[in-house]
Amino acid sequence: MTRAAFSYEFPHRHLISVADLNPVDISLIFERAEHWRAVNKTTRRSSDALQGMTVLNLFFEASTRTQGSFEMAAKRLGADVVNFAIAQSSAKKGESLSDTARNLAAMQPDILVVRHGATGAPSFLADRTDLSVVNAGDGMHQHPTQGLLDVFTMNRHWGSVGGRRVLIVGDILHSRVARSNIGLLSMLGADIRVCAPPTLLPADIDQWGVEVFTDLDEAISDCDAVMALRQQKERMAGGFVPSGREFFHLFGLSHERIARAKPDVLVMHPGPMNRGTEIHSQLADDPKHSVIMEQVENGVAVRMAILELIGTNLRKEDAA
Amino acid sequence: MSASFAITNARLIDPASDHDAPGGVLVEDGLIAQVGDDIDLTGADEVIDAGGKVLAPALIDLRCAKEAALTPDGETLPSLAASAAAGGFGSIVLAPNASAPLDKADGFAGMSRGFAHYPVRIYSAAGATRALAGTEMSELGLMARGGAVYAGHGDHTISDSKTLRRVMSYASQFDLWLALRPADPALSQGTVATESDWSSRFGLPAEPTISERIAIDRDASIAALTGGKLMIDRVSTREGLSAIRQARKRDLEIAATCAIAHMTLNEVDAGALDSAFRIDPPLRLEDDRRALVEAVADGEIDAIVSDHRPTPFDDKGEPFALAIAGTLSLETLLGALLGLVHEGELTLLQALRPLTCGPADLLGLPQGRLRAGAPADLVLIDGDKPWVCDPAEFRSPRGNSAWSRRRFSGQVTQTFVDGRRIHNYNA
Fold first, then answer.
1. Span A147-176, average pLDDT
2. Chain A residues touching residue B203 (CB < 8 angstroms)
3. Separation CA B60–CA B70 (nearest Å)
4. CA-to-CA separations, B117 to A174, B77, B114, B402, B412, in angstroms, rounded
5. CB half-sphere exposure, B380, CA atoms < 13 A
6. What pLDDT is stored for residue A320 in this prediction?
7. What is the rounded distance in angstroms from the CA atom of residue A74 to the CA atom of residue A83?
């Protein structure tokens, strides 16, 4: 269906959680992402969609990839981009987040791209300023653009994720990527499995509409896609898991382990990878299965789509 | 106010004697001279017609806090006392906390004497260990002599069991309750929510409710070993209540308090991650809230506490997980509690017992009852008067309230201490 067929406009001025989206919103994002993906393949990538607007990247947690991806997306759309990195090392910094928010808002940016260590910080900022807020990761809660680019990548291979079996393996407990993916995939009708040692599974995950496994061989059977999550090194040292190598032997992805999955299984990873902890180096680099670099490429296109759709709504508000 | 006055035509609620009937009181020289439906008005200089309103003993709060002296815009003793009087309290106890550990004997007696300048009776508890660090005992004996009414330990328990054993044993010679928050330190450290479907979807660091059970089991075992008096400082879960019942089967001195927040709110209230609902212990599940209300009805809870905790807006100016815990509650406690009475979950006697004779009996105080000879600490309550909570109208200079914009039925109209009127809503 095209947009005109049901004359529905993307209604959001924020992207805080995948729970804010419905399947039509998602298809609108993907339709525009497909467009920008094609444009990004050419040498004429600049657009004036966000001309005159300022996108403020506000990162309270260090990030190279996500921040770079958002910056590239905003610049290709013609926006001015300002990066603010605010070290959040000490619990008690000089200024409260609401004061920081008010100060930044006074500088009149249009879209705030926020990453913060605490659940709820992006919606907190959206409540306290009149800026559009795009969540680039909040605590262990949500990382909606990552979830969208993952599903976009799967969609491009399959047409639709409905009815496909997708396995997420690794540290689900601390993962905002897993929470965003589970939200989107269940909304779109995928058959979701998760696999992790019990110490890395959230409480009550059995109520999330996913199948829970602790045995990777069992979990991986007949999967269409398998997504490894990044394992934090400090959690692999006896606290949650005895060692990185034990984790690799039990939960790491390798050619051997994916043999039980579908023959054309997609191997995914949100990055940055720890080769030899959650994924075998050779599998990560195997173009037959690994779509990890496609995910990175699609990330820019999906973020362009989101910034463009939100920017269009801001222009409408401005005109009204 | 006259030396002798009477309040007539009231609905007398005296939980100490299980009395709920029409009547009045005669007050002479700060003491209750007569109670009942047949009081002699001939000697009264003034007669107040209560018009059918509820007349009960003024409320007693075992746990509240002010801010450090000289805090800009902070809650001071005068503002705290005014909030208490407006909330119907005649007596409040300052409990130790991290910023005011109340752990120094120097000046303790002087501080207690200074409380006499305020219209509300103010008492102080003592911090049981130095700086509440849980390692070295503070001078409990000297502070008890200086007026400390119990020993407390703020939001964190004494994690080292050997230290706890010694503190409890030492405190027992002064007949002091040792109040401990029931939370297993390792399970609860760094958490901001209760482990549940809700908190795990939001990825919030959360504690399982058995943390409370484990702590109560341990603390009660140490009370049994030492013969000390253990006050469970804010039970908040069904698990915790079950551990208290278990402990009470033994011949131990165990008291339990709970905070008004956990009786009237649950985690769903914080559903939109509003920092106003960041409270310690964290808000629980509806099942826990119901269990607490049932425990109050059954008389298992000795005292309901306000756990009134003023914080600057800046500290609540952070997202939920980073916000400083605490809510103001002295001025809203009664309104929130009467909601449970209107809903039929509690009777007035059940609701007010843990705010009057319950805490008074724990501390051995003469007030908290309508009895001839008791101090005339009284509260008049218009049980049906509707009002909306607006923190801008609080006596407190702070505004962090989990009940902001709630609708209540039931308001304090007058509060008396020693027969002196310390709050008059209509004035």
1. 97
2. 119, 139-142, 174, 176, 179, 202
3. 27
4. 53, 10, 6, 30, 23
5. 25
6. 83
7. 12
Told to judge if B307 belongs to the known catalytic residues of this protein, a careful annotator would answer yes
Tell me which residue in B202, B203, B318 faces A97 most closely, judged by beta carbons: B318
Q: Which CATH number is B4-55+375-424 given? A: 2.30.40.10
Domain boundaries, chain B: 4-55+375-424, 58-358
**Above 90 in pLDDT, residue A2?**
no
- DSSP-derived secondary structure for A181-222: HHHHHHHTT-EEEEE--GGGS-TTGGGTT-EEES-HHHHHTT
β-strands B407-417, B378-388 pairing: antiparallel
Q: Topology of domain B58-358, per CATH?
A: TIM Barrel (3.20.20)
Q: List residues bridging with A14 in a β-sheet.
A: none
Q: Other CB atoms closer than 10 Å to residue B229's CB: what's the count?
A: 22
pLDDT value of position B213: 98
- List, run by run, the mean pLDDT of 10-residue segments along chain B (427 residues): 87 98 96 95 93 97 94 93 98 96 94 96 97 96 96 96 96 96 96 95 96 98 96 98 96 96 96 91 98 98 98 79 94 98 98 98 98 98 96 94 96 97 88
- Whether pLDDT at A1 is above 60: no
Q: ipTM of the predicted structure?
A: 0.81
Q: Which residue of A has its CA nearest to B194?
A: A203
Phi-psi region of B368 (alpha: psi -120 to 50; beta: other; left: phi over 0): left
Q: Which runs of consecutive H residues, i.e. helices, occur in chain A? A: 3-6, 23-40, 65-76, 97-106, 121-128, 144-158, 176-187, 216-220, 244-251, 255-258, 281-284, 292-319
Q: Mark yes or no for CB contact B273/A119 under 8 Å.
A: yes
